[in-house]
Amino acid sequence: MRKESVVGKKTAWLIGAAVAAAALGGASVAAASVNPFDDDSSTNGGTEQQLNQTDRDKAIDAAMAKVGSGQVTEVERSDSAGSSYEVEIRTSDGSEVEVNIGANFQVLSQSPDD
Question: Which residues lie within the region annotated Disordered (predicted)?
Fold first, then answer.
């Protein structure tokens, strides 16, 4: 009887571990596919540097101050001349706006995002 109890506990433990691993793996995939602050980390062989959290926060703060309210959908280094960062925001009416931010986190321009 004691042997059955040990086997039952091991089985329960293994099943629990498998369920936890599956849940964590699924959560990782979901988080990766819904990253609201995609920074275009250059998977195509380019040399684009990722943003650090401080620069990302400053760029978002500057863009939100210009646009007002909305949801940030993307933050990235800009490839436009004169602009250091691009922040894309979905406004409350559903439209998307791109805000170009300079090196000192000043707003350079705002335009509809295509």
Answer: 35-92
